[in-house]
Structure formats: C-alpha cells, structure tokens
User: Which sequence fits this backbone?
C-alpha cells in the first residue's frame, strides 16, 4: 500500500506553484459560491447539442472540488491492474471506489444505498490489500476483474453505459463516495471482509455456508425489502439435463431412465439455500449445482414437467453480507447508509481510515449532515 501526503515543494517551483494555487483558489471560490447559491454545478460541455449529440462530457463537480469541499487532504494511492487494457494504473483510493460503485451498483439506486455500497467497497478493498492484494496480479493492490477483485468502470466505460446521463450519474456516485470518504467497517478494531451480493432473496447467508470461514459479522439476517426478488426459472429438457450431469459427474450414474428419481435436494440451510443436492449415486453442494446449471443463486427448488426439469431460483449472488437490492429497499423505507450497513454486517462499527490507521467513531452521528451535494430523490 502506498500513501502520499502533501509534500513541501522545491523553492525553485514555489513561484509557479503560487500561481497555480491562486488559480485553484479562484476555482474553489467559484465552486463555493455556486454551492452557497444553491445551484447545481455543471459544465456546459455535457449538454447535448441541437442534434442530441454530446461533444465532450466532463463530470462535475470533479473529485478535486469534492476533496476541497470535504477538506479531505489525506489521500491513499493504490495500484490497480486494468484487466481490459492490460496495464497497471496508480490512482487515488476514492477515485477507484467511484469506479467500483459505478460498476457494482446501478446509479439510479437510492443515494443512501450508494453510500452503503461505497463504504462496503472501500472496506473490501482495504481488507484485500491488507491480505496480500490481488491474487492474480502480484504487482497490483486490486484488479478490475469482478471474478477476482471488484468490477470497475473507467470514465470511458461510464460514458458508454450512461450516455446522456453520464454527468448526472457520475455526480451521484462521486458524491456518495466522497460523502463517506475514508469510512470503513471494523469488527473488534479490525477491517471487515465486507462481502456483498446483488440480491439475497429475502435472507442473507452465514459466511461458513458459502465460504471457508465463519465470520462473526457475516451472519444470515432477514432482508425484508428485497423487491423484486430476482426470481428466475431455469429449465432443461431431460436429454440435455442427462448430458450435462453425465459430462461433469459421470460417477453419478445418471441416465435417461433414472434421472427423474435421481435428482433431489438433500439438505437446505435455514435460509432456504440448498446445501446438498443428490445426483444419482453422488452428492454435490448447492454451489456446485449453481455452477452446473447456471443458476443465479443456491436458493432454489426443483420441479419436473412433462418434458424436463425446472429450477425455480430466488435472489442473485452468493448471499453473504450486504444485499445491494435489500440496501436499496431499506433506503426507500427511510434507512440511512449506516443503518443499512449495521443491519447487514452484524456487530460492526463504522470507523475512519487514514494515515493514523483506523479511528473508530464513538458517536453515531453521521458526518457531513449539511452535505449540499446530496441529490434529491
Ligand atoms: Zn484481482
């Protein structure tokens, strides 16, 4: 992990620096004037022209503006491996988190849900870095491959995905990140492995039922406001089903004659997620079944039709930690990001991460309650 702080400059560049600082002060003054006048700060360049095209899209306010507003002078540089461009990029931690939240949660989600995601993603990042960094790229703290670390959007990808909404969406996500800058989740004074997933289907899962370790803050909890539940039916004709099982698990002895009696859910967890599924003479885990049949989650039931099998699934993802969909539901029902995080991560505290290490918050009062950047709706 690399940290950088403001350094004293060489006297030879002091004059040039003064000029730059003066220019920045003017910019900051203009920014603050715009803030105080209640106007949303926008660049004209992001407006479509008469033909509806967008020439140059500049997000506003910039992270520099936000850093200035929040008086955030502490910065942490992390080394990110961009797996699409195949290159290492050094970037500010908070800037990286903006790219992660943009990729991991829909920008239209409730603002408090975006803030909860920002804290979870920041904690997940710092926890990973403290445990050896990216596992597939030893030179990087994190990578942009969601199968390894967390998904990440560059500005180019945000522009392609959001098109005319780019500036507004960028604003919204950047404000959620900067409104929680430096905030992390801790348990017993240590960073948490802040896992999260898209949708729990109504109940999250104990970590040991999905991963190796039972962590005290990753307990299954009710997730009452999941809407929709991301339900999906996945069907296979009998022949295709037998072929799929026989290719991966030939020891099961499954064939066209015994398949109907050969498949059954053996054990399920309290949450309703499948623990084990019997396939003829063998037994596989719910996770293996999810992979084999391409299911959204291990929360499924099985039905036979005249022509084959149907897996009815609920939820999306591993089910451990924060449910993004549930977080959005809680926010719609009036919870702020702290309430959301304390609900999904059992017994954690919210702390500040900085050069001095981790400082646990003793008061529950949210920071930046006068945040003028909080978007409406
Ligand atoms: Zn990685």
Assistant:
């Amino acid at each position: 992990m690399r940290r950088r702080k403001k350094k004293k400059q060489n006297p030879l560049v002091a004059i040039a620096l003064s000029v730059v600082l003066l220019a920045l002060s003017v910019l900051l003054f203009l920014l603050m004037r715009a803030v105080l006048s209640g106007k949303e700060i926008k660049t004209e360049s992001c407006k479509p022209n008469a033909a509806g095209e967008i020439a140059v899209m500049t997000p506003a306010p910039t992270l520099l503006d936000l850093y200035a507003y929040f008086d955030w002078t502490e910065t942490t540089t992390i080394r990110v491996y961009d797996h699409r461009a195949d290159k290492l990029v050094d970037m500010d931690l908070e800037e990286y988190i903006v790219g992660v939240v943009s990729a991991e949660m829909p920008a239209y989600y409730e603002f408090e849900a975006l803030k909860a995601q920002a804290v979870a993603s920041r904690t997940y990042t710092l926890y990973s870095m403290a445990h050896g960094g990216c596992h597939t790229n030893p030179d990087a703290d994190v990578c942009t491959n969601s199968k390894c670390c967390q998904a990440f959007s560059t500005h180019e990808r945000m522009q392609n995905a959001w098109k005319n909404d780019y500036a507004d969406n960028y604003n919204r996500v950047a404000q959620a990140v900067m409104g929680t800058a430096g905030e992390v989740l801790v348990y017993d004074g240590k960073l948490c492995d802040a896992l999260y997933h898209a949708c729990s289907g109504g109940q999250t899962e104990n970590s040991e039922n999905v991963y190796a370790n039972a962590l005290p803050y990753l307990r299954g909890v009710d997730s009452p406001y999941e809407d929709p539940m991301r339900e999906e039916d996945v069907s296979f004709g009998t022949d295709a089903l037998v072929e799929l099982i026989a290719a991966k698990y030939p020891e099961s002895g499954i064939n066209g004659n015994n398949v109907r009696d050969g498949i059954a859910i053996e054990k399920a967890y309290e949450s309703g997620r499948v623990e084990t599924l019997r396939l003829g003479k063998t037994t596989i885990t719910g996770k293996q079944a999810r992979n084999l049949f391409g299911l959204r989650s291990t929360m499924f039931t099985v039905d036979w039709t005249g022509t084959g099998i149907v897996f009815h699934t609920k939820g999306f993802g591993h089910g451990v930690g924060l449910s993004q969909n549930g977080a959005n539901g809680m926010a719609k029902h009036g919870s702020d990001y702290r309430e959301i995080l304390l609900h999904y991560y059992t017994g954690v505290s919210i702390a500040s991460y900085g050069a001095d290490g981790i400082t646990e918050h003793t008061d529950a009062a949210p920071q930046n309650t006068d945040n003028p950047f909080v978007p409406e709706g």
User: Anything to note?
Assistant: The radius of gyration is 24 Å. Residues 232-313 form one domain. The first helix runs from residue 14 to 36.
